[in-house]
Amino acid sequence: METWVVEILFGGFLLLMLIGAPITVALAGAAMFAFLAIEKNPIAFVQIAFTSVGSFPLMALPAFVLAGALMEAAGISKRLVDIAETLAGPITGGLGAATVLACLFFGAISGSGPATTAAVGMLMIPAMTRRHYERSYASAVTAASGGLGIIIPPSIPMVIFGISAMSLAPTAADVKAHGEFASLSIPKLFIAGVLPGILMALALLVTNYLISKRRGYRGMAETWSFGEIGTALRKGVWSVLAPFVILGGIYTGLFTPTESAVVAIFYTLFVGLFLHRELKFRAVLHALRTTTGSPGAC
């Protein structure tokens, strides 16, 4: 590519950002400037843009974001937090540990880091500050744990990466050199994220324990209450089952990652409307508005 075309591309993007254009408009506008500068037909630009987003796997992105918003409204995230709190029990820094566990569970449903951080943080940051955790530490634990949402499958960034890689057809040399890994499979990407995600969660739990011990953040109870654990699990059994339904369906081949996102939506609607009976029509509309108006959801 000519140097002047690169200058137009990045210069146009920076100019549009400086005048306050949304990032999507800045990206599209800069690309259009560069396209016109090399005297290409503008109709071809539209066709390329449509082809790029007209991908069936891309439907998983808004579907997972919508599923995450509905889970918060349906009480699933609250029940996951309750389970995590009872499991943390008397452990030093128990609320911090509960935050990590809750993000681990919720990330395995929503596939979104920001959605995980928002859903869990809304409940856990006030709870930690009430038990004399510093607000800065409570926010840091939640933000760090929310990152599990992009590692633990299903992961929206992994879907994007898989789609991008699959759009680049491998050459015969690639296939000969790398075999099946020349083209990426989204389910295989999901499987590859399981162990790193668990290791990250363990590292966060250990770090939280060491910091909490130094700062004197005590556990939530003197001993584990198996009665409370049983109650929390009984109330949140449908919340805990959600990751197994979604991931189990993918790994057993019952449905594709894209279809799993739609399954997550209908599972959440069923649980929220008929089992928990907490999901209201107004909350569903709010979740739809949040999904369509949230550019940073992944």
Distance between the termini: 31 Å
Show unreliable segments.
178-182, 294-298
Shape: globular
| Tally of helical segments | 15
Mean pLDDT, nearest integer? 80
Considering DSSP H and I runs of 4 or more, what fraction of the residues is helical? over 70%
The count of DSSP E runs of length 2 or more, i.e. the number of strands, is 0
Largest sheet at a glance? none
Describe the structure.
- Helix content is 74%, strand content 0%.
- With 298 residues, it is an all-alpha fold.
- It is globular and about 75 Å long.
- The two termini are 31 Å apart.
Nutshell version of this structure?
This protein is mostly helical. It has helices at residues 3-18, 23-37, 42-53, 60-73, 76-88, 94-110, 113-130, 135-146, 156-166, 172-178, 186-215, 226-235, 237-251, 257-275, 281-292. The relative contact order is 0.15.
Name the features.
disordered C terminus; 74% helix; globular
List the helices and strands and how they pair.
Elements: H1 3-18, H2 23-37, H3 42-53, H4 60-73, H5 76-88, H6 94-110, H7 113-130, H8 135-146, H9 156-166, H10 172-178, H11 186-215, H12 226-235, H13 237-251, H14 257-275, H15 281-292
Helix pairs in contact: 1-2, 4-14, 4-15, 5-6, 5-12, 6-7, 6-8, 6-11, 6-13, 7-8, 13-14
